[in-house]
Amino acid sequence: MQAGYKINKVFVKTQAALILGSLFDFLVTFLLVEVFSCWYVAGNAAGNITGAIAQFVLSRKWVFKNSTQQVPAQLFKFILMWTGNIILFAMGVYLLTHFCHLHYLLSKLIVSVLLGVSYTYLMSKKFVFL
């Protein structure tokens, strides 16, 4: 029973870190696209990078509390994970916006949730923050 609780606790904390990272992500995306008239795919990528930085710090210090790995090695694995994340995000946002005619922020929200509960959580837990 205790192991199940621990898995759920880590999942919930991971999702909280992702939500906070997503707040930064959405803010940067919105500002770049709506205020500075950048292309939504470029704004999305810049937002992802900003959110990734916030998520890395929160995950390392709060979610996984992993101080045994050296920061450079862990950061390298995190960058690899987020490179895949940015590619999946860009494809997902583009496909939903271009082909399904959704607003880019709705597309971003849908893709964010889908990747957050699958790819990002699993890669963080099993690859980056072992």
Number of helices: 4
Quaternary organization = single chain
Shape: elongated
Number of β-strand runs: 0
Mean pLDDT, all residues: 88
Task: Kindly name the structural category.
Answer: mainly alpha
- Cα distance, first to last residue? 22 Å
Portion in strands: under 5%
Report the helical percentage: over 70%
Q: Low-confidence runs (pLDDT<50, min 5 residues)?
A: none
Q: Helix and strand succession?
A: HHHH
Q: Which helices and strands, and how do they pair?
A:
Layout: H1 2-35, H2 40-63, H3 71-98, H4 104-128
Helix pairs in contact: 1-2, 1-4, 2-3, 3-4
Question: What can you see in these coordinates?
Answer:
The chain has four helices and no strands. By secondary structure, it is mostly helical. The radius of gyration is 15 Å and the shape is elongated. The two termini are 22 Å apart. The mean pLDDT is 88.
